[in-house]
Amino acid sequence: MRVLAVIPARGGSKSIPKKNIKAFCGKPLISYSIELALKSSLIDRVIVSSDSKEIIDISIKYGAEAPFRRPDKLANDDTTDFPVFKHCLDFLKKNGNYEPSLVVHLRPTSPLRTIGMLEKAIKMMIDNPEADSLRGVCEPTQSPYKMWTIDSDGFLSPFNKNISIKEAYNQPRQKLPLVYWQNGYMDVIRLKTLTNKKSMTGNKILPLLIKENNIFDIDDYTTFKMAEEHYKNL
Question: In 39-89, where do the E strands start and end?
Answer without folding.
Answer: 45-49
